[in-house]
Design a protein that fits this description.
The protein is an alpha/beta fold. The chain contains nine helices and eight strands. Helix 2 packs across helix 8 and helix 8 runs antiparallel to helix 9.
Protein backbone atom coordinates (compact mmCIF):
# COMPACT_ATOMS: atom_id res chain seq x y z
CA UNK A 1 0.00 0.00 0.00
CA UNK A 2 1.32 3.47 -0.88
CA UNK A 3 1.83 5.88 2.03
CA UNK A 4 -0.94 8.40 2.39
CA UNK A 5 -0.14 12.02 1.75
CA UNK A 6 -0.84 14.09 4.88
CA UNK A 7 -3.38 16.85 4.41
CA UNK A 8 -1.35 19.48 6.30
CA UNK A 9 1.48 19.64 3.74
CA UNK A 10 1.98 22.96 1.94
CA UNK A 11 1.70 21.96 -1.75
CA UNK A 12 4.21 24.62 -2.78
CA UNK A 13 6.73 23.64 -0.09
CA UNK A 14 6.03 20.02 0.87
CA UNK A 15 9.32 19.62 2.73
CA UNK A 16 8.89 22.81 4.78
CA UNK A 17 9.11 20.98 8.10
CA UNK A 18 12.36 19.25 7.16
CA UNK A 19 13.82 22.42 5.63
CA UNK A 20 13.09 24.40 8.81
CA UNK A 21 14.55 21.78 11.14
CA UNK A 22 17.78 22.60 12.98
CA UNK A 23 19.42 19.69 11.16
CA UNK A 24 19.08 21.62 7.88
CA UNK A 25 21.35 24.37 9.22
CA UNK A 26 24.04 21.73 9.69
CA UNK A 27 23.24 20.15 6.31
CA UNK A 28 23.67 23.42 4.43
CA UNK A 29 26.97 24.16 6.16
CA UNK A 30 28.41 20.70 5.50
CA UNK A 31 27.22 20.67 1.88
CA UNK A 32 28.81 24.06 1.27
CA UNK A 33 32.10 22.93 2.78
CA UNK A 34 32.08 19.83 0.56
CA UNK A 35 30.89 21.34 -2.71
CA UNK A 36 32.00 24.98 -2.88
CA UNK A 37 35.71 24.26 -3.54
CA UNK A 38 34.67 22.33 -6.67
CA UNK A 39 31.92 24.75 -7.66
CA UNK A 40 33.57 28.15 -7.20
CA UNK A 41 35.87 27.93 -10.27
CA UNK A 42 32.84 27.43 -12.54
CA UNK A 43 31.66 30.99 -12.00
CA UNK A 44 34.61 32.40 -13.96
CA UNK A 45 32.89 31.16 -17.15
CA UNK A 46 30.09 33.67 -16.80
CA UNK A 47 32.38 36.72 -17.10
CA UNK A 48 30.11 38.84 -14.96
CA UNK A 49 30.58 42.60 -14.78
CA UNK A 50 32.54 43.91 -11.83
CA UNK A 51 29.39 45.41 -10.29
CA UNK A 52 27.18 42.40 -11.01
CA UNK A 53 23.69 41.97 -9.61
CA UNK A 54 23.32 38.39 -8.33
CA UNK A 55 20.29 36.46 -7.05
CA UNK A 56 20.63 33.47 -4.73
CA UNK A 57 17.21 31.81 -4.96
CA UNK A 58 16.40 29.48 -2.08
CA UNK A 59 19.40 30.83 -0.19
CA UNK A 60 18.62 29.14 3.13
CA UNK A 61 21.04 30.32 5.81
CA UNK A 62 23.17 32.25 3.31
CA UNK A 63 26.06 29.80 3.17
CA UNK A 64 26.57 30.31 -0.55
CA UNK A 65 25.29 33.89 -0.66
CA UNK A 66 28.17 34.96 1.54
CA UNK A 67 30.66 32.92 -0.45
CA UNK A 68 29.42 34.64 -3.61
CA UNK A 69 29.97 37.98 -1.90
CA UNK A 70 33.59 37.01 -1.28
CA UNK A 71 34.00 35.75 -4.85
CA UNK A 72 32.52 38.98 -6.27
CA UNK A 73 33.69 41.74 -3.89
CA UNK A 74 31.91 44.53 -5.79
CA UNK A 75 28.66 42.71 -6.56
CA UNK A 76 25.27 43.35 -5.00
CA UNK A 77 23.62 40.10 -3.95
CA UNK A 78 20.03 39.30 -3.00
CA UNK A 79 19.29 36.06 -1.18
CA UNK A 80 15.65 34.95 -1.07
CA UNK A 81 13.97 32.15 0.84
CA UNK A 82 10.57 31.38 2.35
CA UNK A 83 11.82 30.41 5.81
CA UNK A 84 12.19 33.42 8.13
CA UNK A 85 14.39 31.58 10.63
CA UNK A 86 17.00 30.79 7.99
CA UNK A 87 16.87 34.37 6.71
CA UNK A 88 17.43 35.77 10.20
CA UNK A 89 20.54 33.62 10.54
CA UNK A 90 21.74 34.71 7.10
CA UNK A 91 21.30 38.40 7.98
CA UNK A 92 23.20 37.95 11.22
CA UNK A 93 26.07 36.29 9.40
CA UNK A 94 26.19 39.06 6.79
CA UNK A 95 26.27 41.70 9.52
CA UNK A 96 29.11 39.92 11.33
CA UNK A 97 31.13 39.99 8.11
CA UNK A 98 30.16 43.62 7.44
CA UNK A 99 28.48 42.70 4.17
CA UNK A 100 25.03 44.13 4.89
CA UNK A 101 25.51 47.12 2.56
CA UNK A 102 25.70 44.97 -0.55
CA UNK A 103 24.18 41.66 0.58
CA UNK A 104 20.53 41.57 1.58
CA UNK A 105 18.04 38.83 2.34
CA UNK A 106 14.31 38.89 1.68
CA UNK A 107 11.42 36.49 2.20
CA UNK A 108 10.17 35.66 -1.29
CA UNK A 109 8.86 32.60 -3.11
CA UNK A 110 10.91 31.16 -5.95
CA UNK A 111 7.63 30.55 -7.78
CA UNK A 112 6.78 34.25 -7.86
CA UNK A 113 9.72 36.45 -6.93
CA UNK A 114 7.87 39.73 -7.28
CA UNK A 115 10.97 41.30 -8.84
CA UNK A 116 11.30 43.20 -12.15
CA UNK A 117 12.25 41.24 -15.24
CA UNK A 118 15.87 41.45 -16.31
CA UNK A 119 17.14 42.53 -12.89
CA UNK A 120 20.14 40.23 -12.46
CA UNK A 121 23.33 39.21 -14.24
CA UNK A 122 23.28 35.82 -12.54
CA UNK A 123 20.66 33.72 -10.75
CA UNK A 124 21.95 30.89 -8.57
CA UNK A 125 19.65 28.13 -7.31
CA UNK A 126 21.15 25.25 -5.35
CA UNK A 127 19.65 22.24 -3.55
CA UNK A 128 16.10 23.48 -4.21
CA UNK A 129 14.50 21.85 -7.25
CA UNK A 130 14.24 18.35 -5.76
CA UNK A 131 12.36 19.71 -2.74
CA UNK A 132 9.54 21.52 -4.54
CA UNK A 133 6.83 20.69 -7.08
CA UNK A 134 6.82 22.14 -10.61
CA UNK A 135 10.55 22.92 -10.89
CA UNK A 136 9.98 24.04 -14.48
CA UNK A 137 7.99 27.01 -13.17
CA UNK A 138 10.81 28.01 -10.88
CA UNK A 139 13.36 27.85 -13.68
CA UNK A 140 11.11 29.98 -15.88
CA UNK A 141 10.78 32.55 -13.08
CA UNK A 142 14.55 32.64 -12.61
CA UNK A 143 15.08 33.10 -16.33
CA UNK A 144 12.56 35.94 -16.30
CA UNK A 145 14.49 37.99 -13.74
CA UNK A 146 17.87 37.51 -15.48
CA UNK A 147 18.75 40.10 -18.10
CA UNK A 148 19.63 39.07 -21.67
CA UNK A 149 23.18 37.75 -21.72
CA UNK A 150 22.99 36.80 -18.03
CA UNK A 151 23.24 33.32 -16.59
CA UNK A 152 21.38 30.71 -14.56
CA UNK A 153 23.50 28.45 -12.36
CA UNK A 154 21.53 25.47 -11.04
CA UNK A 155 22.69 22.74 -8.68
CA UNK A 156 19.95 20.12 -8.96
CA UNK A 157 20.15 17.03 -6.78
CA UNK A 158 19.55 13.58 -8.27
CA UNK A 159 19.29 10.63 -5.92
CA UNK A 160 19.88 8.16 -8.71
CA UNK A 161 23.46 9.47 -8.69
CA UNK A 162 24.27 8.29 -5.17
CA UNK A 163 26.19 5.05 -4.72
CA UNK A 164 27.73 3.11 -1.85
CA UNK A 165 29.53 -0.19 -1.96
CA UNK A 166 27.40 -2.83 -0.18
CA UNK A 167 28.30 -3.26 3.45
CA UNK A 168 25.98 -4.95 5.95
CA UNK A 169 23.11 -3.46 3.94
CA UNK A 170 22.69 -2.57 0.25
CA UNK A 171 22.06 1.15 -0.24
CA UNK A 172 20.85 0.85 -3.86
CA UNK A 173 17.29 -0.38 -3.20
CA UNK A 174 17.06 1.92 -0.18
CA UNK A 175 17.67 5.03 -2.27
CA UNK A 176 15.62 3.79 -5.22
CA UNK A 177 12.52 2.83 -3.24
CA UNK A 178 12.84 5.56 -0.62
CA UNK A 179 13.28 8.57 -2.84
CA UNK A 180 10.78 7.42 -5.46
CA UNK A 181 7.98 6.91 -2.95
CA UNK A 182 8.92 9.99 -0.93
CA UNK A 183 8.77 12.06 -4.11
CA UNK A 184 5.38 10.68 -5.10
CA UNK A 185 3.98 11.34 -1.63
CA UNK A 186 5.20 14.94 -1.58
CA UNK A 187 4.81 15.85 -5.25
CA UNK A 188 8.55 16.28 -5.75
CA UNK A 189 11.15 14.77 -8.08
CA UNK A 190 14.32 13.33 -6.58
CA UNK A 191 15.69 12.67 -10.07
CA UNK A 192 15.36 16.27 -11.27
CA UNK A 193 19.13 16.63 -11.71
CA UNK A 194 19.21 14.64 -14.93
CA UNK A 195 16.23 16.59 -16.30
CA UNK A 196 17.52 20.10 -15.66
CA UNK A 197 19.52 20.35 -18.89
CA UNK A 198 16.38 19.63 -20.91
CA UNK A 199 14.29 22.09 -18.91
CA UNK A 200 16.77 24.92 -19.46
CA UNK A 201 17.06 24.03 -23.14
CA UNK A 202 13.26 24.10 -23.47
CA UNK A 203 13.25 27.60 -21.96
CA UNK A 204 15.57 28.73 -24.75
CA UNK A 205 18.77 29.16 -22.75
CA UNK A 206 22.01 28.93 -24.70
CA UNK A 207 25.59 27.79 -24.10
CA UNK A 208 24.42 25.09 -21.70
CA UNK A 209 27.02 23.34 -19.58
CA UNK A 210 26.83 20.38 -17.18
CA UNK A 211 29.38 19.75 -14.47
CA UNK A 212 29.24 17.55 -11.39
CA UNK A 213 29.87 18.29 -7.76
CA UNK A 214 31.32 15.02 -6.53
CA UNK A 215 31.08 14.35 -2.82
CA UNK A 216 32.96 11.14 -2.20
CA UNK A 217 35.48 9.60 0.15
CA UNK A 218 38.38 10.64 -2.11
CA UNK A 219 37.66 14.31 -2.89
CA UNK A 220 36.01 15.37 0.35
CA UNK A 221 37.24 14.85 3.93
CA UNK A 222 35.42 11.88 5.36
CA UNK A 223 34.15 13.80 8.38
CA UNK A 224 32.68 16.51 6.12
CA UNK A 225 30.96 13.80 4.07
CA UNK A 226 29.75 12.18 7.30
CA UNK A 227 28.39 15.50 8.58
CA UNK A 228 26.07 15.70 5.57
CA UNK A 229 24.80 12.17 6.16
CA UNK A 230 24.31 12.75 9.88
CA UNK A 231 22.24 15.85 9.16
CA UNK A 232 20.12 14.02 6.58
CA UNK A 233 19.63 11.19 9.07
CA UNK A 234 18.50 13.55 11.80
CA UNK A 235 16.23 15.61 9.57
CA UNK A 236 14.48 12.97 7.47
CA UNK A 237 14.09 9.81 9.57
CA UNK A 238 10.55 10.67 10.66
CA UNK A 239 9.51 11.93 7.22
CA UNK A 240 10.69 8.77 5.47
CA UNK A 241 8.89 6.65 8.01
CA UNK A 242 5.71 8.62 7.30
CA UNK A 243 5.89 8.86 3.51
CA UNK A 244 7.58 5.62 2.38
CA UNK A 245 7.45 1.86 2.98
CA UNK A 246 10.79 2.23 4.80
CA UNK A 247 10.31 2.39 8.55
CA UNK A 248 12.13 4.88 10.72
CA UNK A 249 14.25 2.07 12.20
CA UNK A 250 15.16 0.79 8.73
CA UNK A 251 16.04 4.31 7.65
CA UNK A 252 18.34 4.77 10.63
CA UNK A 253 19.97 1.38 10.08
CA UNK A 254 20.79 2.24 6.47
CA UNK A 255 22.26 5.58 7.45
CA UNK A 256 24.41 4.05 10.16
CA UNK A 257 25.62 1.51 7.61
CA UNK A 258 26.52 4.24 5.10
CA UNK A 259 28.20 6.31 7.81
CA UNK A 260 30.32 3.29 8.70
CA UNK A 261 31.40 3.08 5.05
CA UNK A 262 32.22 6.79 4.93
CA UNK A 263 34.39 6.52 8.04
CA UNK A 264 36.08 3.28 7.00
CA UNK A 265 39.47 4.20 5.44
CA UNK A 266 38.89 1.44 2.90
CA UNK A 267 35.22 2.29 2.27
CA UNK A 268 33.89 4.15 -0.73
CA UNK A 269 30.68 6.11 -1.28
CA UNK A 270 29.78 8.90 -3.70
CA UNK A 271 27.05 11.51 -4.13
CA UNK A 272 27.09 13.34 -7.48
CA UNK A 273 25.04 16.48 -8.12
CA UNK A 274 24.71 18.01 -11.59
CA UNK A 275 25.50 21.71 -11.88
CA UNK A 276 23.72 22.96 -14.99
CA UNK A 277 24.22 26.47 -16.35
CA UNK A 278 22.75 28.37 -19.27
CA UNK A 279 22.76 31.86 -20.73
CA UNK A 280 19.66 33.91 -21.40
CA UNK A 281 19.76 34.80 -25.12
CA UNK A 282 20.39 38.38 -26.16
CA UNK A 283 16.75 38.68 -27.27
CA UNK A 284 15.56 37.57 -23.83
CA UNK A 285 13.16 34.79 -22.89
Amino acid sequence: MSPEKPTDIDPSNPQAKEMADESMVHTLAAQANAIWPQEAPLFARYRLPDNAEILDAGCGTGEITLRLAELYPNARILGVDVLPGHLDLARARAATRRLSERVRFEQRSVFDLGLPSGSFDLAVCRHVLHAIPHPERVLAELARVVRPGGWLHILAEDYGMLHFEPRTLDADPFWSIGTTTFGKATGTDFHIGRKTFGLLSHLGLRSLTVDYAIVDTVRVPRETFAAIWESWRDGFADAFGQHTPISRDEFLAHFEDMLATIRDPEGYGVWMSPIVAGQVPSSGI
